[in-house]
Structure formats: C-alpha cells, structure tokens
C-alpha cells in the first residue's frame, strides 16, 4: 500500500485527534503533546498501516496507546494538574496563558472531567463514542477488543457516570441525550 501523505493526514485528522487528546488528558498542554506525538508515531510507522481499517481509527489507536503509556508513568501530569487547579487565580502574563487557564477551568467543570474519573476502558470507550462519534464497530477496532466488550464498557461507563453525577448532586437531566444506537445496545 502506498505511504499516506503526512501533511494531508495531519490536515484532515489533527483537529479530531487533538480534541480526543484534550478529553483524555484534561489540559491543553498534554493534549498538544499527545496529538503531536500521535502524528510523529504515525510518521515513523506509517508502513504498518495496511488499510484494513480507516486511517482515523488507526490514528486513534496510536493516541490511546500513547495515553495509556503516559498514565503508567510517574504521575507527573496529575501533580501538574493538582498544582494548577488548587493554586489561587493569578493574573496571567499573556493572552495565551489566560486562554489555557480558561480552557482548563472549562474542562474541570465539564461532563468530561467526570468521565475522566472512570476506569480506562470505560473512559476510552465513552470518549470515542460521544466525543468522536465513532460507531461501536469502529471503537472495537480502535480498542482491539470484541464488540460485546465495547457495548459493556459503554453501558458500565454510562452507569458509572450517572453514579458520579448523583454523588455530586448533579441533575441527571442535564446530561446529553444519547443516540438511539446507544439506547438499543443498553437494553
């Protein structure tokens, strides 16, 4: 199979990969790193893409592997976030710093911050389904697991998310309505 043009691949898929990286990592700095590293890894191993899956599911697979590796590391990311989130608001020195702080604050208060509290398998399945809009079959391909496992992870992830919202006293009606496919798979 001919090598894909890296610039064209990045132009087409970078925004989606970056968005998924932001949801997975929870902050713009790590999202930038994860997204860029995803494309660097793809560039180094583009010959492994055999075309059996779509290119974006292949890229998501790389992203999730990189995220898993990062989560196994020393926990530096958690310490950075804890320091950032617990620090008193400061006057940002630059507009970029203000934007980044606003983005972190917005994420911290979002539904995705609650999703981040779920186990990895459930979190990844929910991100791919509801942030990225992948079909169940595509999620199974990205996560390299059976379709039934994807359905189970989404079902249990939604149930876990409901428990987190209930514990926080959030109104469950504020959660987005899920597509009919998810309702039919849950019953």
Brief write-up:
The chain is mainly alpha-helical and 187 residues long. 71% of the residues lie in helices and 0% in strands. It is built from 10 helices and no strands.
Labels describing this entry:
187 residues; mainly alpha; Rna Polymerase Sigma Factor, Chain: A; Arc Repressor Mutant, subunit A; 2 domains; 10 helices; 71% helix
Describe the structure.
The protein is mostly helical and 187 residues long. It has 2 domains: 1-109, Orthogonal Bundle (Rna Polymerase Sigma Factor, Chain: A), CATH 1.10.1740; 111-187, Winged helix-like DNA-binding domain superfamily/Winged helix DNA-binding domain (Arc Repressor Mutant, subunit A, Orthogonal Bundle). The protein contains 10 helices and no strands. Helix 1 (6-25) packs across helix 7. The longest helix is centred in the C-terminal third of the chain and has 21 residues, at 147-167. The chain starts with 5 loop residues before the first helix and ends with a helix. Mean pLDDT is 79; it is low at 172-177.
| Number of helices, counting only DSSP H or I runs of 4 residues or more | 10
CATH class (first level) name of the largest domain: Mainly Alpha
Name the beta content range: under 5%
Q: In which range does the helix fraction lie?
A: over 70%
Structural class: mainly alpha
Number of domains: 2
* Rg calculated over all Cα atoms: 17 Å
Q: Let me know the largest β-sheet.
A: none
Averaged pLDDT, please? 79
């Amino acid at each position: 199979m001919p090598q894909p043009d890296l610039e064209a691949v990045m132009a087409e898929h970078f925004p989606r990969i970056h968005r998924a990286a932001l949801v997975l990592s929870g902050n713009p700095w790590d999202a930038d790193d994860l997204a860029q590293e995803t494309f660097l890894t793809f560039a180094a191993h583009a010959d492994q893409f055999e075309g059996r899956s779509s290119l974006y599911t292949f890229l998501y697979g790389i992203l999730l592997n990189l995220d898993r590796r990062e989560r196994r590391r020393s926990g530096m990311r958690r310490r950075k976030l804890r320091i950032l989130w617990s620090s008193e608001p400061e006057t940002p020195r630059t507009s970029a710093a203000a934007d980044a702080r606003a983005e972190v604050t917005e994420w911290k208060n979002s539904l995705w911050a609650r999703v981040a509290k779920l186990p990895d398998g459930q979190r990844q399945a929910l991100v791919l389904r509801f942030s990225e809009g992948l079909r169940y079959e595509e999620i199974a391909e990205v996560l390299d697991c059976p379709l039934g496992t994807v359905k189970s992870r989404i079902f249990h992830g939604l149930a876990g998310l409901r428990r987190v919202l209930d514990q926080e006293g959030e109104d469950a009606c504020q959660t987005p309505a899920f597509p009919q496919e998810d309702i039919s798979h849950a019953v």
